[in-house]
Amino acid sequence: MIPAPTNPALVDPFARPISYLRVSVTDRCDFRCTYCMAENMTFLPKAELLSLEELDRLCSTFVRLGVEKLRITGGEPLVRRGIMTFFRAMSRHLETGSLRELTLTTNGSQLARHAEELAACGVRRVNVSLDTLDPEKFARITRWGRLNQVLDGIRAARAAGLRVKINAVALRGFNEDELFRLVEWCGGEGHDLTFIEVMPMGEMGEDTRLHQYWSLNDLRATLAERYSLIELSDRTGGPARYVRLAQTGQRLGFITPLTHNFCESCNRVRLTCTGELFMCLGQEDRADLRQPLRRSPDDAALEEAIRAAIARKPRGHDFDYSRRTVSGQMSRHMSHTGG
């Protein structure tokens, strides 16, 4: 059992309690999605990665300081060797009640192998990234992936009692024609569905992401041609905003970092597999937690470093550069097409 701290709450300078930690357990993935990774990746040396024992200690410290939700991510988290050891370790915090939720974001490729044990560890729901239901398009966008393997994983997750939410990145020229198919498939299978606006920035190159950018404002307008969208106040601790389709009753989420600022109630921080803590997705500021973690077996310095990092959490992200870039690109596109 985690000893009770004298001052557990992590509160940022804007009085927001930090209760949600996203943890990357690896930089490796068995897919090479075109909007995410280059086909020939150079991954981090093993010595730079936190061991599973170090991840346990770090996450347990955050739980002791008031974090109630852990989301495990990657890369693809389930390709890390021995990862179920970590999930079993985290399940003890669910048993004590210190942790309210342990969840996972995955590409689904390894779910068939691990779904039953994930459920046994107390995982109740998983997010599966799935941008298309067309096998050929799936192979093209993931480069190395097979759609049937992912669908088998989703079925295994449901059979194990896990709720599945599908995350689909909105990609212009790729899955626009599958919008209604994705909605109807998720509705028929009982999966929630969230659309994610691709951010035209990062390592894949500005031109690539700009050409893929599909505004969720436009996506919602297309949905409204067929469905009545009822705005919901539902919040799950993340950045999504939700609607319900009046005709089917299903819930859809939208994550729109470029067209909607979701920072006012931000309660989360992100930990990388090398021990860097990002206090905000849209800012470059970070804190090195690996050094205090490895410097001493005592957690006092580690707790101090975490509190100091949270004290630097900004009010909100700043994607103004990306907004300007997208706006300029859209203007050029309209002038070239006569729009």
Descriptive overview:
- This protein has 339 residues and is of the alpha/beta class.
- The protein is built from eleven helices and twelve strands.
- It has helices at 52-64, 83-96, 111-120, 135-142, 147-159, 179-189, 206-212, 216-223, 290-295, 300-310, 320-337, and strands spanning 20-24, 69-73, 101-106, 125-129, 163-170, 192-197, 229-231, 241-245, 251-255, 268-271, 276-278, 286-288.
- A twelve-stranded mixed beta sheet has the order 7-8-9-6-5-4-3-2-1-10-11-12.
- Helix 1 packs parallel to helix 2 (83-96) and helix 3 runs parallel beside helix 5.
- The N and C termini lie far apart (63 Å).
pLDDT below 50 for ≥5 consecutive residues: which ranges? 1-7, 201-207, 321-339
How do the strands of the widest beta sheet line up side by side?
A: 7-8-9-6-5-4-3-2-1-10-11-12
Task: State the major sheet.
Answer: 12 strands, mixed
The number of helical segments is 11
Oligomer: single chain
SSE order: EHEHEHEHHEHEHHEEEEEEHHH
Helix content range: 25-40%
**Distance between the first and last residues' Cα:** 63 Å
Mean pLDDT, all residues: 86
Radius of gyration: 20 Å
Strand content: 15-25%
Structural class: alpha/beta
Number of strands: 12
Question: What best-fitting shape do the alpha-carbon axes yield?
Answer: globular
Descriptors:
339 residues; 11 helices
Short structural summary:
The chain is α/β, with parallel strands linked by helices. The protein has helices at 52-64, 83-96, 111-120, 135-142, 147-159, 179-189, 206-212, 216-223, 290-295, 300-310, 320-337, and strands at residues 20-24, 69-73, 101-106, 125-129, 163-170, 192-197, 229-231, 241-245, 251-255, 268-271, 276-278, 286-288. The longest helix has 18 residues, at 320-337.
